[in-house]
Amino acid sequence: MNLATAAVLFPLDISISPNSDGLPGIQQLRDVVGASMTIGLILAVLALILSAIVWALGANSSNPHLAGRGKVGVLVALGAAIVCGASVTLVNFFWNVGQQV
Fold this sequence. Notes:
The protein is mainly α. About 75% of the residues lie in helices and about 0% in strands. It is built from three helices and no strands. The relative contact order is 0.09.
């Protein structure tokens, strides 16, 4: 099949949009993703609390290495919370950017 024949056979204007009822189990998958987001946020809070404790222990015991590890843990926990909380918005933003291409 040469290129001219392929161009005639295949449609040039393809329009596909996502649908939420095309496959069984989509709602259950949404529930699983929502529960995963909740678990991620709870773990981020736990990591923030533990890192703050490590930071405080390091600062009060004159241990700069321990205090530094606590600071890094606080930043990582906050970053994880940002990513978990903004994941849906980020995906929707890039989906909309992709639709404009």
